[in-house]
Design a protein that fits this description.
This is NAD-dependent succinate-semialdehyde dehydrogenase. It holds the Pfam family Aldedh. GO terms for molecular function: oxidoreductase activity. This protein is an alpha/beta fold. The chain contains 14 helices and 20 strands. The chain folds into 2 domains: about 270 residues, Aldehyde Dehydrogenase, Chain A, domain 1; about 180 residues, Aldehyde Dehydrogenase, Chain A, domain 2 (3-Layer(aba) Sandwich), CATH 3.40.309.10. The strands form 5 sheets. It has a 7-stranded mixed β-sheet with strand order 14-15-16-13-12-17-18, sandwiched between helices. Strands 9-8-7-10-11-19 form a 6-stranded mixed β-sheet, with helices on both faces. The longest helix is centred in the N-terminal third of the chain and has 21 residues.
């Protein structure tokens, strides 16, 4: 079902699409598949709702968001199971994602009450200058399949808090999680048109979002290639955009680091969600004199990871999202071995013929010529490169195109600050492999994105400053 103007409806065309479990290949359910007409209806509903929602008090907006959070909290186990069924991540990871999603709603329930303006000293005695912040307007949000709940709340919670009605387009692979979120929104009795859900054809739904002049803001999480297209398509109507795009995170390990701790951090960063996260480690750089030791410790930990259906007890690695993703992993590994890379563990497809599984893999002796050195793998493959000096580590870690997240392990405080300052990334984890949290800004530099999500910074993406000058003379 689609959720438009406070009601559950079928697609105007009557079309549906199937949702498949990547761990089993089974069809879970068929859901409504919307198109441009459904999207236009949702946009019109949001535009009408904007006239009243923008004037709702901060206290009342906060109350609605708290109510949504309470309802999400009451169904978090069901939500987590849905996430695992439709995209494959282990249940314990899904539950962690749902808890993070609720944290975003809780946070922005409070930020709704903290939208402040300014009074500026005037240059003339008979003038007064004010700056007030107002909602940008109708917002279109496009979310990915790898975090099908947290990416929704990270976008719609600050939009609602700021006074912006939203139309959400979830990934076609994971619409069931979005439906569950909107069930909570419906139960919270959010006013009609403030939050709308249109699943379906990306080209038709998003095409209407980018071309419709009633939409004043586009927020997107996904690949850099698609993000660039959305920016181009939004240019004709000069929409405000925020983009969280691709990453190619380096993980730097110095010889003064605790190897056990660094290896555990690398496992946590690289293999969460089977390597299908935008901030997961893609390149591990280890100082040359400890590279062999680190490789052995790291590979031994990776080899212990249990692969299987995410609903099974003790599973650490679930399936990839589809066959295309698996083929990309295989291509990167084959390319790496052709350039002399050595597989320390993994390197094969899973033995589950129905699902899309690939063994968690570690490659020693990675070089800059390999595809994996420059292309985002988005899979459970960890290549180990080496470096000698701090300067070389920085030079190799910084990427010409990507700048989302980077990690560094060292016990040297001076070195930690040096790396923090020299790494050209929007997020830097120093001895921290899992930095994401609701109260901090998430986003990248270069071609990894524009704008930030999370924390007090996230709500700014949905506000405009209005300068007002009073002449009292």
């Amino acid at each position: 079902m689609l959720y438009i103007n406070g009601e559950w409806v079928n697609a105007i065309s009557g079309k549906t699409m199937e949702v498949t479990n990547p761990a089993t290949g089974d069809v879970i359910q068929a859901v409504a598949s919307g198109d441009a007409e459904d999207t236009k209806t949702a946009i019109q509903a949001a535009s009408q709702a904007f006239q009243t929602w923008r004037k709702v008090t901060a206290k009342d907006k906060s109350s609605y968001l708290r109510s949504i959070a309470e309802r999400l909290r009451a169904r978090k186990e069901d939500l987590a199971r849905t996430v695992t069924e439709e995209m494959g991540k282990p249940y314990k990871e899904s539950l962690g994602e749902v808890n993070l999603a609720i944290d975003y709603v809780d946070w922005y329930a409070e930020e709704a009450k903290r939208i402040y303006g300014d009074t500026i000293p005037a240059s003339h005695a008979d003038k007064r200058i004010m700056v007030v912040k107002e909602p940008v307007g109708v917002t279109a949000a496009v979310t990915p399949w790898n975090f099908p709940v947290a990416m929704i709340t990270r976008k719609i919670a600050p939009a609602i808090a700021a006074g912006c009605p939203v139309i959400l387009k979830p990934a076609s692979a994971t619409p069931l999680s979005a439906i569950k979120v909107f069930e909570a929104i419906h139960e919270a009795e959010l006013p009609k048109g403030v939050a709308n859900l249109v699943s379906g054809s990306a080209s038709k739904v998003v095409g209407e979002m980018t071309s419709n002049e009633l939409v004043r803001k586009i927020t997107f999480t996904g690949s850099t290639e698609v993000g660039k297209k959305l920016m181009r398509d939004s240019a004709d109507t000069v929409k405000k955009v925020s983009m969280e795009l691709g990453g190619h995170a380096p993980f730097v390990v110095f010889n003064d680091a605790d190897i056990e701790v660094a290896a555990e951090g690398a496992v946590a960063s690289k293999f969460r969600n089977a390597g299908q996260t935008c901030i997961c480690t893609n390149r591990i750089y280890v100082q040359e004199d400890i590279a062999e030791q680190f490789g052995k410790v790291f590979a031994s930990k990776v080899a212990e990871l249990k692969m299987g259906n995410g609903l099974e007890e003790g599973v650490d690695i679930g399936p990839l999202i589809n066959e295309e993703a698996l083929e990309k992993v295989e291509d990167h590994i084959q390319n790496a071995t052709s350039y002399g890379g050595t597989i320390l563990c993994g390197g094969k497809r899973g033995n589950n013929e129905a699902g899309v599984f690939y063994q968690p893999t570690v490659i020693q002796g990675a070089t800059e010529e390999m595809k994996i050195a420059t292309e985002e793998t988005f899979g459970p493959v960890a290549p180990i490169f080496t470096f000698q000096t701090d300067e070389e580590a920085v030079r190799k870690a910084n990427h010409a195109q990507y700048g989302l997240a980077a990690y560094c392990y060292t016990k040297n405080v001076n070195r930690a600050f040096y790396m923090m300052e020299e790494l050209e990334y929007g997020i830097v984890g120093i001895n921290d492999a899992v930095p994401t949290t609701a109260q901090a800004p998430f986003g990248g530099v270069k071609e990894s994105g524009i704008g930030r999500e999370g924390g007090k910074y996230g709500i700014e993406e949905y506000l405009e400053e209005k300068f007002v000058s009073f002449n009292l003379g």
